[in-house]
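Hi P.,

Sorry for the delay on this. The queue was packed all week, but I finally got your sequence through. Input first:
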Amino acid sequence: MSTDDSEPFSEEFNNFMYKVNQVSSIIHKLASNEKNVQEIGELEAKHYLGESNEEKSVILNEDTIDIKIKNDRTVINRKALLREDNPETQSTETFMEEVSKDADRRYKNKLRRREKMETFKKQATLAFRRGEYEKALSLYDKAIEQIRDSCILYSNRALTYINLKHYDKAIKDCETALQLNENSLRARLLLAKAYYFSGKMNNFQKTVEEAKETNVSELSFINDFVKNLTTECEESTERN
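Then the structure:
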């Protein structure tokens, strides 16, 4: 698995486990014998469940209740915080069991989607190598529907758009790829290529300079890329 693909997956799992720890902290507060701590737990639980639509000023302090809470979307199912027989309370054991099941469902779903993505990506790559760019584009679309945080997928689709002369769409995909991985030299050079063929020379030159600034050790490769790009453009002009 590539670094571009694996890092978002690991980050997503780590973020989820961070949320699990947050909810565990809420449970401990709700189980506290101290009224102030219980009230803080109740406020945090309401916020986590999305039951509060207003911004509140609260500081997570066990001596005073003064917290600033902003609206956020919960990433754990509501069922994980509620008991069927009593929606106001739940044992820590039952709660953690629900969280564990929810985490397992999400993890398995992510794996299934990643497997589908890999299948579509392989098919798209094969179609691209055969020069079947429309077919490759359709397959990359399907791959991205499964996994939307892959720098490589957006870069590959951008290259497909370039070959189909859809330069504006290629530029958009390159920008998305760089948002996912700002250090991707491939995405930045493809962005430069899309600018070049769309006649946006100022943007092209700026992007090449950015590539050089962020990839000092690859200056020779970047210069060769620009040289080959110029040759490719001249040959394309002659054919037309």
